[in-house]
Design a protein that fits this description.
single chain, about 100 residues, 3-stranded antiparallel sheet, two-stranded antiparallel ribbon, 5 strands, about 20% strand, globular
Length: about 100
Amino acid sequence: MREHMARFTATVGYVRQLEMRSLCLWCEGKLDGGWSCNHGGQLSVDGFPDDLPLAEIGKRLRCQRSGTKGRVDVRPDWREIPGSNPLRQPTADWQR
């Protein structure tokens, strides 16, 4: 059944269609000692083209905590939807 399902690629335009303005970012890099970084951040979609996949944004970012570049999980900021309650709250330490 899965082979009949179309693959969905989330883009900046998709985030805007949801009437959201921000992305949540989570570092998938490692810290000294091999510990997962999991540093979180937030980024505005302003200035990005609609057809840009969220995964491509993650490949361009560097985590200020671990220094890892290109290993960032990027998702819509679901907190912008009323009644949402995400488990992790991002901070704002990211560089383009």
